[in-house]
Predict the 3D structure of the following.
Amino acid sequence: MKYIGIDLGGTGIKVGVVDEDGTILLKLSAPTGVERGHEAVIHDMAQLTLQAIEQSGVPMEEIDSIGIGIPGIYDIQRNIVPFCTNLFWHEVPLVQLMQKEIDKPVYVGNDASVAGLGETFAGSIRGVKDSVFVTLGTGVGGGVVLDGKLFTGHYGVGTEIGHMIIVAGGEMCTCGNTGCWERYASATALIRMGVEAMRSHPDCLIAKEAEGDESKVTGKLVIDCVRQGDKIAARAFDQYVYYLCVGLTTLVNAYDPEVIVLGGGIAGAGQILLDAVNEKLPGMIFCKKMPYAKIVLATLGNDAGIIGAALLGRAQ
Amino acid sequence: MKYIGIDLGGTGIKVGVVDEDGTILLKLSAPTGVERGHEAVIHDMAQLTLQAIEQSGVPMEEIDSIGIGIPGIYDIQRNIVPFCTNLFWHEVPLVQLMQKEIDKPVYVGNDASVAGLGETFAGSIRGVKDSVFVTLGTGVGGGVVLDGKLFTGHYGVGTEIGHMIIVAGGEMCTCGNTGCWERYASATALIRMGVEAMRSHPDCLIAKEAEGDESKVTGKLVIDCVRQGDKIAARAFDQYVYYLCVGLTTLVNAYDPEVIVLGGGIAGAGQILLDAVNEKLPGMIFCKKMPYAKIVLATLGNDAGIIGAALLGRAQ
């Protein structure tokens, strides 16, 4: 059988025809055009899916199911998208509307969560049963796979691991709380730490590389400065890695997974990030005499969303 | 069938013969005598079990299995108790030694975790499939039940929820980290907050009730002062409830359980605690438009450990 994986984002729709091993046979994309309302978006998504199937040459009867990763939450009790900020959606019966145009089973999951499922089936941790996937991007998202299945929590809200509170009373978060992990471990957080370093040390390499312009500071720029041996950048990165490890410690102590996969923009730093985490984390976890989750980097990149969504059907 | 539940603590061994509904038919106890070494303790535990079975009148062939809750971690990969601080145990093959004396299947779990399993089967949340049990005692422990089964994590370390970090850089914890939840939500924490209140307001009701003696401040004393309308005590309690809710928020955002059960000494405060949590928590959780875990109080009290341990066998 083959599976359709759809990565639905605020700017683009990506559709892939995926085989049982998680290989993408064909991929199409189109702009989302959120301003047109959910019916137009879902119609385009269905049309793009039919096109992808046709172009792939896979007969319709060989398509098992359609999986969709959305940038929000799916209410599994009511079978509805209750709200989706990036898409301006409110109470959208996504599954029913898709099935009106294509008569196949449709599964929906959170985009970061399905990306984690993708890594489990086809990426760096193929075959691992219990994993936590952490995306270190603009925010921090995550997906938990337990016994090979996507863990969605009881109400479908789990697993918003970016909103674990790690510094009660700390940085304000968009969710209304203070001190959420994503305020300290996202790319946004590393940029903030880089800018703070630049302000207090106007002669540091970060300031030089950014030409004194705070808006030019990116996570990659800070990490490049670390690679070049700049001590001020190294201190900012060390602070970032500490907070990253605080959240990883909570994940190890509370979920005790076999593997934790780091993905998203910051994971692009590669070995330098992995080395820093593996130096700091062992001293922080609760049971220092017991084995604990291996930390690895994601390998599927932007395709994880399509592959993971496709595998929502396979994992049922 | 009937089940043996053993609650093994640093001071006492409690053995119960439990039926399929989680009712204790007969209960025996003996001092642990940890200083005698693990072999003597396990031998006593086996003898107490045989006595309990005999006194209960249940024929041996009707005993399905033996479950043991230990104040530590069980290494499910190596089938061994790697260490147990309160018992001074190190690399103890508990299951094998018990089975040398009684030829029945033996299951082992963390004491707080099995207490959570007990509440799920026989206590306040009978029949609930996805729950988190939180003990608010000297420390903070917990148990997670997913789909009716005790969740132990991949290596058997999960779920040390008392060591989720909620205030990175905050209070020192015995585990070596700073800011673990148990430093802010245990009875010990409420006592600390009460003592601090007493120091800064020597005329408050806490000081009066404790007769100016800091060592007389207990969690119950602080809560009694709150009940009597003392504003300084109310402020200390409010601070405690805030930190309790910080950890509960992380549990809701990361585990998304159906129900969270509060047990342990502080839960003895009852409705006043529940009301305070239910006032603060809804504004803190991530998805304010979605249903989230109902917060309830544990009802089994000290028997939860025996009942939950007994049900380890039933839940397999």
